[in-house]
Amino acid sequence: MKTNREEQLWSKDFVIVILLNFFGFLTHLMVLSTFPFFVNYLGYTETVSGLCATLFSIVAVVSRAFIGWVLDSGKRRLIMLIGLLGMALLPMGYLLIYTILTSIVLTAILRMLHAIAFAATNTAAATMATDIVPKTRFAEGMGMFGMSTALATACAPAIGEFLMNLGFPILYGGTTAIMVLGLILFFIMKNPKIEPSRKKFAITDLVNRDALPASAVALVFVMTYGSLESYILKFASESDEVSLSGAFFFIAMAVMLLITRVTVGKVADRRGEAVFVYVCCPAMTAGLLILAFAPGNLSFVLAALLSGFAFGCIEPSLQAMAVSLSPPNRRGAANSTFLCAYDIGIGVGAGLAGVLIDQIGYHHMYAVLSLASIAALILYIFIGRNHPSSITWQVKHGR
């Protein structure tokens, strides 16, 4: 019998699914981080861009629920193909709006279609990764898989801002080219054969109950990340105290994300998620309060490092908790439940941030949203740590 050390983690297909997730997140964040500028070009304010972000998240949530069920019915490759095709073609719609149509309504519709494509790509990639990763190295493997998100977070805003400055046609043409490369990789990838679920469709199957505690905590926590992801470029460009580019924030954040993703998985496999929740929630609160009350170049970088550490540790450990009790033919629903919560949190955070910016400004917005990470900590204490899906609980009880 193989030991944990002997179980192989890396393979061609695991590398490809990481790259597909990277390309999906990269193009998604390139569009998202520059989207407030696109909305401003159309003549609208941050409230409108925040509303579009909320619509994106609502549609992603609804579609993920059904995507999870289809994934569990054995259609992993079909869902991935649909997502990749959508992510490749939809940027041309933004280009059409930019050059000819100039319509905020069509922009909102495109954002909703983009949400479906992104949800399909991301949920399929996460589910395929859980198929490939050995169970005994699950948190470690998902942490490595999550490095693709960290790399995308580092690269996307900087690349997006650079290409946007060359022109929106260059930006959207670049995102299409990246996803075409993803399509090429998809056709040389194989994924393990999983016995599909034979259950007839039922609304109750769209949500995995065992994934709810981790998902609820993630939902509240990532509201903070939604405000950073959507508005840090604008914050930096309009701040008198910060001379650094907003892209630098994401680079510094992602450096810390990468460091944490390399180490967090092994610890989570041995001890569970609790230690990360207890440390990361206060760290994220501190990062946002620094942005709110101590703006400046050094504090800007410190806030990025704290945010990267917090998000880099808590997200893979909570995702491992969300799927820890699921058999292979229910992992699609478990992943979709978790990622739905992720989308809701991002959307609510971005939408609320947009309204708060127009009402009280960037600094006070970050002060208000810093409370979300404290709320996530309280939620974990009351509904997460003693639930059987908690890896910490499982370790404590020898499960």
Structural class: mainly alpha
Strand content: under 5%
Shape: globular
What composes the largest sheet?
none
Low-confidence stretches: 1-5
- The amount of helix comes to over 70%
Count up the helices.
15
The first-to-last residue Cα distance is 20 Å
- Please compute the radius of gyration using only Cα atoms: 20 Å
Number of strands: 0
The helix/strand series, from N terminus to C terminus, equals HHHHHHHHHHHHHHH
Mean pLDDT: 85
Question: Could you write a compact summary of the structure shown?
Answer:
The chain is built from 15 helices and no strands.
Supply the key terms.
globular, 80% helix, disordered N terminus, mainly alpha, 399 residues
Care to describe what's here?
- By secondary structure, the chain is an all-alpha fold.
- It has helices at 12-42, 46-72, 76-89, 91-101, 104-132, 138-166, 168-186, 212-238, 246-271, 274-293, 297-323, 331-360, 362-369, 371-384, 391-396.
- The protein is globular and about 55 Å long.
- Mean pLDDT is 85; it is low at 1-5.
Q: What are the SSEs and their pairings?
A:
Elements: H1 12-42, H2 46-72, H3 76-89, H4 91-101, H5 104-132, H6 138-166, H7 168-186, H8 212-238, H9 246-271, H10 274-293, H11 297-323, H12 331-360, H13 362-369, H14 371-384, H15 391-396
Helix pairs in contact: 1-2, 1-5, 1-6, 1-7, 1-8, 2-5, 2-12, 3-5, 3-7, 4-7, 5-12, 6-7, 6-9, 6-11, 8-11, 8-12, 8-14, 9-11, 10-11, 10-13, 10-14, 12-13
